Amino acid sequence: MTSTDPHGGGTQTQQRRPTRQxxxxxxxxxxxxxxxxxxxxxxxxxxxxxxxxxxxxxxxLSSLAEAGEVDMLRNEDGEAIWRSCSDTxxxxxxxxxxxxxxxxxxxxxxxxTNAIAAEHGYADLSHTLEIFGTCPTCR
Amino acid sequence: MTSTDPHGGGTQTQQRRPTRQxxxxxxxxxxxxxxxxxxxxxxxxxxxxxxxxxxxxxxxLSSLAEAGEVDMLRNEDGEAIWRSCSDTxxxxxxxxxxxxxxxxxxxxxxxxTNAIAAEHGYADLSHTLEIFGTCPTCR
DNA sequence: AGCAATGTTGAGAACCATTGTCAAACTGCG
DNA sequence: CGCAGTTTGACAATGGTTCTCAACATTGCT
Lengths: 139, 139
What we know:
The structure is a homodimer. The first copy, chain A, is α+β, with helices and mostly antiparallel strands. Chain A contains four helices and six strands; from the N terminus they run αβααββββαβ. Chain A has two domains: 11-85, Arc Repressor Mutant, subunit A (Orthogonal Bundle), CATH 1.10.10; 88-139, Dna Ligase, domain 1 (2-Layer Sandwich), CATH 3.30.1490. Chain A has a three-stranded antiparallel sheet. A three-stranded mixed sheet of chain A has the order 5-4-6, with helices on one face. Strand 6 (123-134) of chain A pairs antiparallel with strand 6 of chain B. Chains A, B: Belongs to the Fur family.
């Protein structure tokens, strides 16, 4: 580490350099609004003319996810799928075939999970809820 | 495909033969009440003296899951984890620290997901809902 | 601009959970 | 017992994801 932090800027700045590759990933993410696997995103970038290594796509997506700028969840096969997200808590209705995604909010569900957890004395909650199905177009 | 089905038997009988291996897996499952990976279950069987191939453990767990006799879900790394379960559809409230699990039913949630999906024309549904928190003991 | 320090990339190897292969062993039934 | 259909297991093969590390880009400094 040796983070001398010469300027003493308090909060350690998360240096994220604006590279061609990261811009390409961001651009790709902006180009669709459903969930895609890292490999699909990688292909998409290639098709857009850019060339970015697969490992870099993974790295970038992970760091974006950690920064809360993209949602990452897992499909039924356990594969990670990603997309840029709005910043409110929500869930997804995802098409198993084409990936079409609907963002849904579920105040009822939030309330229900809180009630259940309280009932059992659990605190510091989080939850995951995703719905998979086949969209009208894919049937 | 090529499912010639020579005898043209209507409902294909799901013959599940009671083998030593399947008994061993069932015994292992009975030996714990939290979620374990297939490999952990395989190790557990070995430690119990039995010897069952890893592939067989996977096969057996999958078929048990399909038959609704065990729950299979994925941890944050995308690995499949399993445990025996009651035979009704339910979700889990899992302690983030010690792993203590409470099975919860949520008819309200089921209804909600169905409604949401119908509203958007999605069919052939499935969903995942898991709640994570800190249990009373771990606070 | 030139340079040094350090974060970033990419090609491919490495990992590792999971599934496929197929001959040998086992089960149920006659 | 003997056959037909299942099941098993050792191992290869997959496939997504991460690691490695030398080459490269970016930033800050002079």
